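I have a small job for you when you get a moment. Would you make up a two-line entry for one protein for me to read? No commentary is needed, just the two lines. Write everything out right here, beneath this request.
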Amino acid sequence: PQIQNIIPSSFFGTTGWAAPLLGTAGGVFILIVGMTYLESRRRKAARAGEGYGDNLLNEPAPFAGERLAHPLLAILPLVLVGVANFAFTRWIPELYGETQSFVPSVIGTAAPVVQDVSRLAAIWAVLGALLVGILSVIAFAWRPVVASFAEGTKNAIGGALLASMNTASEYGFGAVIAALPGFLAVATALQAIPNPLVNEAISVTALAGITGSASGGMSIALAAMADSFIANANAAGIPMEVLHRVAAMASGGMDTLPHNGAVITLLAVTGLSHRQSYRDIFAITVIKTLSVFVVISLFYLTGWV
């Protein structure tokens, strides 16, 4: 249910389950190469005698003396979110049809608002699935939730505000960049790339890097260039599901430059600096960016979707 996986659906009329084979292949590539890199870094740190560290910040409170839920019960809400998302993705179009119209509740007369269900079903499905997950937590862990509701809510709101404000500031920065005259020149240069999928991947990851936000960069790129991407893909016989998957994966590449909101939030929570941590963050970023081109190559070699 990540927002980067939902945004393309409103432009391409796809769902969050678009191109599952390509998405799985890209995820496996990131897992194998990423864990290989992290394991090499762990071994190097162990040889140097580096441990977990003693300057600990934001450590969670210990659970000593408390009864913990069974592991299977603990992961059940996550499983339910996935299952419910899959089910709602198929039920919503059947329930509402191709379009859904309603009259806004305003004073006076107003024309009906007509919505394209194919471009909104993925968003509605995710919202419904997350609601199912929340209700399942309340149902299976009512007493622990009630006992720590006030403190947990305070921590959740604080964490949400920190993350959202960091990301919002970078999104606003990206919107200002997109409004500058120079952005048109950049967009024109990116559109000159002949291959439709490579064009989309480079455009999305470049704008994600400029804005410092995966969702912000993708939204700006697709708002400005989606029609061009669709036309080029149709001319080349490329399914919209592949465009969706390439855009979603490309947005998670160069978005983790030093000014990225998620990076700033991560360093604030861990109490580390860019100097201490950014080398490894950048390495994983490069691996994520490479995975997009692995997926593109795999599509052209196999035709998988």
In short: The chain has a mean pLDDT of 88. The CA atoms of residues 65 and 229 lie 57 Å apart. The longest strand covers residues 99-102.
